């Protein structure tokens, strides 16, 4: 890729991928179908160095088009490692770009997603933006699942919001990274999850503005195993654990432990009222368990019990022990 082509890029779309070659292919095709005059690039970061099928799938698609791109393998397993690598590569390779967007490898962007997100950011001056992630389930699901709070999102018209919580449909201005460096996504959340929640919590504390763009829509494919009551209830507990860890990281006063325990007790009490409200609204038990299980997750985390759904033991040992250097296994055009 010529330097002048790099210099013309206004936005970079980042995709971390792990063992979803077909998924990342669908994601990329949706990006190649964007209806926009914006000059954009794509950075794909493969996080399975042992068997980088996602990188192969990405290069097969991107190698045939004229869009500036890079496909990189991150040997350090973990979602935060992959995200950090994606944003770092994007900023370094495309120094003229101000906007960096992220989409997951199980998501598909609507044709005007990019133009809507950038237009909102430019017209409002927003440094961070988010948009709807509409779930499409692989299997038929009950209303207990479709109405579960875990599958909800911020709704309503385009407007300023206090904070967004996920990177599955987000925009981040270059200024945000400059302010928060050297710590971007905290790798302590690699296997717990929630690194995006913690990152945006720090962005909020730093005074950045968040905007919600109703028109920047992404569709997410939800696998069948993520629709079972067991998975949803475990995820609720994990969300509470993540919230506790984020609170613990932010509170630095000597009495932090006491403050957090008080917050845990208050959270548990409030969760009962929230559960009753959800039960009355949805007429279903499963969604109503969410606030209570979140509180339980907070309490168990305070005693050192943290779920590790993305634990390294599930990754082949050869990958975890990889000695690949950061610059290896890169394709670029």
If you average the pLDDT, what whole number results?
90
- Spans of at least 5 consecutive residues whose pLDDT stays below 50 are 315-329
Number of strands: 12
Beta-strand fraction estimate: 15-25%
User: What's the total helix number?
Assistant: 12
Class based on secondary structure composition and strand pairing: alpha/beta
Q: N-to-C SSE series?
A: HEHEHEHEEHEEHEEHHEEHHHHE
Q: How many domains in all?
A: 2
CATH topology of the largest domain: Spore Coat Polysaccharide Biosynthesis Protein SpsA, Chain A
- What overall geometry do the principal axes of the alpha carbons give? globular
Strand order of the largest sheet: 8-10-6-9-4-1-2-3-12
Helix-residue proportion: 40-55%
User: Main sheet?
Assistant: 9 strands, mixed
Q: Radius of gyration over alpha carbons?
A: 20 Å
CATH uppermost class of the largest domain: Alpha Beta
What's the architecture of the largest domain, going by CATH? Alpha-Beta Complex
- Measure the end-to-end span: 5 Å
What is the CATH H-level superfamily of the largest domain?
Spore Coat Polysaccharide Biosynthesis Protein SpsA, Chain A
